[in-house]
Amino acid sequence: MMTGTYTPAARMLHWLTAFCVAVTVPVALAMVRTPEGAFTNALYEIHKSFGILIFVIMMARLAVRLVKGAPPPAAGLTQAERVISKIVHVALYVVLVALPIGGYAATSSCCAPVKLFWTIPMPFAFSFGEDMIKTLFEMHELGGFLLIGLVILHVAGALNHALVKRDEVMSRMWAR
């Protein structure tokens, strides 16, 4: 695809990802700060379920991107903006695929079986030792903070284009 906008599928998957991240991150921050109990357990289940959704959506995004491609960078971008945009987008894709995998691997190895919204079991074929589980959880936590930073950069860039530069960059992700 070589037009100036993303496909409807790419736009929909982008906004679904944004929604899931907007749910998952605050839930993650809350669940580790609340006392043990039913409410905290519910937060963990919500976090895990949205993590699974993010992984599925990201696989769909990668498929759409492979099949349909992406529009070329907006014409008015500086070279620095092109480089920063590419780095942030690639990092977002990597983190949004790696975080669910690491969290799922750690949780399903140590704790209880992972279920999608308390119903559909997601079995795991591997079992890691305690040290590996601890490392995976630590990496998952660090990756979560990296995700927050990347989202801040992504949103700041979008707001810069929408409110300061007032160029066509934001219109590429909105339906026409």
Average of the residue pLDDT scores: 88
Strand order of the largest sheet: 1-2
Domain module tally: 1
Distance between the termini: 16 Å
Q: Could you give the order of the helices and strands? A: HHHEEH
CATH class: Mainly Alpha
Overall CATH architecture:
Up-down Bundle
The percentage helix is 55-70%
Please describe the topology of this protein:
Layout: H1 8-31, H2 38-68, H3 79-110, E1 114-116, E2 120-122, H4 130-165
Antiparallel strand pairs: 1-2
Helix pairs in contact: 1-2, 2-3, 3-4
Question: Describe it for me?
Answer:
The radius of gyration is 18 Å and the shape is elongated. A hairpin with a 3-residue loop joins β1 and β2 (120-122). The protein has helices at residues 8-31, 38-68, 79-110, 130-165, and strands at residues 114-116, 120-122. The chain has one domain: Fumarate Reductase Cytochrome B subunit, CATH 1.20.950. It has 4 helices and 2 strands, in the order αααββα. α2 (38-68) crosses α3. The protein is mainly α and 176 residues long. A two-stranded antiparallel ribbon has the order 1-2.
